[in-house]
Amino acid sequence: MHRIYFKVIPVFLFIIALFPAKTVQAALHNPARAYADTIKGIVRDSYGMPLPGAQVVVKESGQVALAGTDGRFSVFASQGNTLHVRHSKYYNFTHKLSGRSSPDIQLSERFIYPAADTINILNGRQSVSRLLQSTATVYTNQLTTSPSPTFLIGLQGRLAGANILQSSGLLGRDGSGIFFSLRGQSPLILIDGVPRGFSSLDPEEVESITVLKDALSTVLLGQRASNGVVLVTTKKGQPGPPKISFTAQTASQSLLKLPQTLSSFDYATLYNEALQNDGQAPVYTQPMLDAYKNGTDPVNYPDVDWYNTILNKTAPASRYNLNMEGGGSTAKYFVSLDYLNQNGYFKTSDINSYNTNAQADRYLIRSNVNVDLSKNFNFALNLFGRVQNGNQPGVGTQSVFSSLLRTPNNAYPVLNPDGSLTGTQSYTNNIYGQAVRSGYLSDFSRDLAADLEMTRKLNNLAEGLWAKGKVSFNTSTVQTIFRNKSFAVFKYLPGPPPAYQKFGTDGDQVNGFSVGTSIKYTYTELSLGYDKQFGEHSFNALLLANQQIENSGSQLPANYSTAGTRISYALHNKYFAEAAMSYSGFNRYKPGKRAGFFPAVGLGWDISKESFVSGNLNWINALKLRTSYGRTGNADIGYYVYNQYFADATAYTIGATPGSAGGVEELVLANPNGTWEKADKFNMGIDASLFSNHLSLTAEYFNNKYFDLMQQRGRNSTILGNDYPSENIGINRYTGTETLLTYQNSLRGVNYFVSGNVSSIKSEILYQDEVIRQYEWMRRTGRPTGLTFGYISNGFFQSQADINASPKVEGYVPVPGDLKYRDLNGDNIINQFDQAPIGSEKPLLYYGATLGFNYRGFDFNMLLQGVANRTRLALGDSEVEFQNNGNYQAFEHHLNRWTPANAANANYPRLSVGVNINNQVPSSFFIRSADYMRLKNAEIGYTFPKRLASKLRLSSLRLFANGLNLFTSAEYDRLDPEYFGASIPVQRVVNAGINIKL
Q1: 777/689 Cα distance (integer angstroms)
Q2: Residue 862: beta bridge partners?
Q3: For residues 48 and 245, what is the distance between their CA atoms, to the nearest angstrom?
Q4: Torsional class of 451: left (φ above 0), alpha (ψ -120 to 50), beta (otherwise)
Q5: How large is the C-alpha radius of gyration of the chain?
Q6: Can you say how many angstroms the Cα of residue 92 is from the centroid of all Cα atoms in its chain?
Q7: What are the residues facing 519 on neighbouring strands?
Q8: Tell me, what's the pLDDT at 7?
Q9: Are 690 and 697 in contact (CB under 8 A)?
Q10: What is the pLDDT of residue 656?
Q11: Which of 631, 817, 862, 907 has the most crowded CB, counting CB atoms within 10 A?
């Protein structure tokens, strides 16, 4: 080894001697300066504005520089050197120095942000490194890829712990048909910290959406903390020149999975068969069947495909957004204007001077202004307004789709020979008449929100002390104008002579007005905070008091009042503790029993800061263990349940002759002891960042016990002649795990990412005062909440011998082709004692995976989303044949019903007209898998080079195309697995747009 040194040192000294002394001295003092010049440049964001805080690294020397507030940086480098530019919210950028000495570098915004420095929580922000609460967050750039009018749909598959399903495609309804579950509960929506009921927001105005899942994160809400929180934070202005962004989009919408109805010939054939199965004579003769089959007489023997007759294949939608932000050192602003138009699918007629199609027009305005009135005093004003105008046919969109689902193709032709609407005594609502001749309905939604917030730093009293006051006013009103009218239908009688039989009245017009909902919220809040660093000790404290008064319709005001505190502590930034508590009241309980105490605590440990990790495992950047436990409340138990109510009545009365007007009746019995529901919540998790922060992991386990749940006793008696009240008796438990794994990196100029989350949740009824059930398999206690019960199918009765050898069905005489069921108690009788769980008892799994890349202006991302271990009972109008005494539709799957000739291959029981009390009851035969995996969202875009955009006097120009509900894989695919037989299917949306930044 010494010999090598002796050989190398003379060579090194000889090389030094070849250079001037000053150059050698400079190189020894700062090796990065050898052969280097001073390179000055600027880093810009996607708007072309200066980006402060960007890190610039010279690859060859390792020198690091940070961009200043003006985005400018200075490094020592040589031509041909490579600069690596990094920022937490932007993709890494590599720039090779060439002839230009002043590089102008523009970064592209990341699709998935890595762990940010801070995150939004209740009443403030928290350092991620110290965060003990259970949260999950998405940001604007993910939300804007989803062409949906409500941000809730944009969250599907993106947040661990959040299960979101859409069961209806009804236009113009805020959150219509959306099921949002956060760890099994329906969460409270807060917008900028204030409880608000609307979800129809413009994604462009949203900075981030964070779900708060454990007790520690929500306990400050007191009696509204149990169900979790969706915390929406809108954008605020940033210092700098005005940033203007304009986005224009146009979309084509189409309905997913319409029911497959039968042709008139198949319908009539099966109807005859069903009548014969029921012991009745057929009603369709062979010549009638031939006429249906051949289509020779469409007036008397119609075959109308009602879906294609009434609905267009596609419907257009468009959207325009203009927003601007900026400001100086004193005042900052963000302003957004948004317009959305969605058209429905109904065909219209020129006979009307008004629109009968379903349509929704939404106008949004957002203004967030933040002003520093002095060095220590800040004033913020947030204004939001929404105007939404909707239109429907006079009978309503829901009624038209219900008729489409239920009306057979042979019920009647669309029009008679003389152009009048057709109908019969059984079918007086001609669907075409419902769509275009029933007038129209117009509904108007108006929302206004105003937040005034003032913050005062009190450093003159104590460094880090501050006080804040907040007042918020919100109002929401939905009004409907009725311009609907009746129409008559006519049955064509061929004669001779031809005649028409009239049903109903024609032209009676109804002009009406109603206020559907009218809600006003007033929210006030005072808080006092203290943030201080004492050497290796970090301390944060918060005191707050708030009150929200809600006026809804004619109800008395609901008054929520809460006082709380939160204290967090960190030692060496690796040991953490946090405690929070609230004292919360609600005015709808009995006086003296309106308020309760709700505490929560949390502990954490960042192992990566320990020397035995940081010194040996440098691939671990962060590794934090955390846990929390607390008690929360839920005030939603009913309207003044401690009071006994009476109402006007004409039945059993007090104070009048029975059956006469003027008396009163006693409503449901009061519960003077009714109080809030409660939950004890335990959460533990691990957060890790590995391999130079390229890989991040969050994994959690939760165990939540909900008790004092309001339920009606099962063991009650009707001897009172009244209903028992709901009482605080129920106990449920929800347990589960959640995992989020994200990997981001760059390879040869390609920035790529993949992120996946999976959640598992299991529910259990620990106690309910259920009715006496003789057998264990009948009991609900100990099983999942909402579990479907019914008979366990054993296939079909194949013969009379099979029937004779099987248990008897109570109250029914089966015939071959009927469903047969398992005799669970062995008494040789099939009755209610043989009903058992038929739905899935496995933990519900829901998951999402996002992946994509960015390369030389091109960007692509896609989202796969799905659910597993989910079952549904399929017994609705889209599944069962000839309901409503035989007047309803039948479907293609009924073609493979049981018949003697098809006994071996049948997958549906023999047909019946009307209700069959054996075949059409809840049973495992009608349990369908509702599992699915869906290409929920995909987007591809191209951002033109900066030099080209500059020629157009633009900071950025981007073209993009995206889609919603693009492809679905499901075991049960007769209908869409989300809407599953509801009247109005959900939609597929294919969208294209342009974004211009100035």
Answers
A1: 47
A2: 851, 938
A3: 12
A4: beta
A5: 34
A6: 31
A7: 476, 552
A8: 41
A9: yes
A10: 53
A11: 817
Nearest one of 961, 986, 996, 968 to 251, comparing CA atoms: 961
Supply the pLDDT for residue 657.
56
Cis amide leading into 496 (omega within 30): yes
Q: What is the pLDDT of residue 86?
A: 84
Parallel, antiparallel, or unpaired: how do β-strands 750-767 and 575-586 relate?
Answer: unpaired
Task: Give the separation between CA 68 and CA 88, rounded to whole angstroms.
Answer: 15
Q: Which two tokens stand for residue 110?
A: 């990341």
Handedness of CA 896, 898, 900, 905 (dihedral sign): positive
Encoding tokens for residue 356?
A: 């009968």
Residue at token pair 């267009």:
312
52 CA to centre of own chain: 35
Dist. CA 560–CA 524, nearest whole Å: 11
In whole angstroms, what is the distance from residue 219 CA to residue 122 CA? Answer: 9
Give the alpha-carbon dihedral of 214, 215, 221, 223, to 10 degrees.
120
- Interatomic CA distance for residues 631 and 699, integer angstroms: 22
Query: What are the two backbone dihedrals, phi and then psi, of residue 434, each rounded to the nearest 5 degrees?
Result: -60, -40
Closest C-alpha among 856, 905, 625, 898 to residue 749: 856
The amino acid occupying position 747 is: L
Q: What is the 3-state secondary structure (H, E, C) of 823-860?
A: CCCCCCEECHHHCEECCCCCCEEEEEEEEEEEECCEEE
pLDDT value at position 6? 38
- E strands in 175-239: 178-182, 188-191, 194-195, 206-212, 229-234
Q: Report pLDDT for 23.
A: 39
Q: What is the pLDDT of residue 161?
A: 94
Per-residue confidence (pLDDT) for residue 408, from 0 to 100:
97
- Return d(Cα 273, Cα 913) in angstroms, integer: 9
What is the rounded distance in angstroms from the CA atom of residue 295 to the CA atom of residue 734? 58
Sequence-distant (≥ 6) Cβ neighbours of residue 110 within 8 angstroms: 89, 90, 91, 141, 744, 751, 753
| Residue range 856-894, pLDDT digits in tens | 889 999 999 999 999 999 998 899 999 999 999 999 999
Residue 497, class by beta-carbon neighbours within 10 Å (0-12 exposed, 13-18 middle, 19+ buried)?
exposed
Q: What is the DSSP string of 362-385?
A: EEEEEEEEEEESSSSEEEEEEEEE
Virtual CA dihedral for 163, 167, 169, 171, nearest 10 degrees? -80
Q: Which residues pair with 180 in a beta bridge?
A: 164
pTM equals 0.89
Report pLDDT for 650. Answer: 56
Task: Please list, in sequence order, all residues whose beta carbon lies within 8 angstroms of the beta carbon of residue 344, skipping any fewer than 6 positions away.
Answer: 171, 315, 357, 358, 359, 392, 397
CA distance 759 to 160: 6
Two tokens at 399?
């009624």
SS3 (DSSP) at 306: helix
Which amino acid makes up residue 661?
A
CA distance 219 to 226: 8
d(CA 754, CA 752): 7
